[in-house]
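pls design
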C-alpha cells in the first residue's frame, strides 16, 4: 500500500495540486475540521459508495490516526482503485482546515 506523510500532502495542497482526498472519519469527527477539498465517506459507508468513485483517479485516504484509512485503502485496492494512505492521519496533520 502506498502512503504519504502529512508534510507531503501539505506541500501538494500548497502547490494547488488536484487531489482526491477521502476522509473516512465519522460525522462527529469531521466537525472538528477536514483537509481542504476532502470529501467525507465514513469507513462503514465505503462499500456502498464505491460505485461513486472513479477508478481512473488516485485517492488519498485519511482518518484520525491512519489505521481506518489503511483499512479503507486495503478494501479499495482489492476493488481495483489506486489509493494512498495518509500516515498519522489528522493527529499528525497541522495544515489548513476546512469546516463543513
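designed seq:
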Amino acid at each position: 500500500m502506498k502512503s504519504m506523510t502529512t508534510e507531503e500532502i501539505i506541500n501538494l495542497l500548497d502547490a494547488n495540486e488536484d487531489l482526491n482526498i477521502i476522509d473516512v472519519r465519522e460525522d462527529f469527527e469531521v466537525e472538528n475540521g477536514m483537509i481542504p477539498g476532502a470529501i467525507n465517506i465514513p469507513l462503514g459507508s465505503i462499500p456502498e459508495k464505491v460505485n461513486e468513485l472513479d477508478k481512473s483517479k488516485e485517492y488519498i485516504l485519511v482518518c484520525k490516526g491512519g489505521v481506518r484509512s489503511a483499512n479503507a485503502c486495503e478494501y479499495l485496492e482489492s476493488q481495483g482503485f489506486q489509493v494512498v494512505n495518509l500516515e498519522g492521519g489528522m493527529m499528525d496533520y497541522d495544515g489548513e482546515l476546512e469546516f463543513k
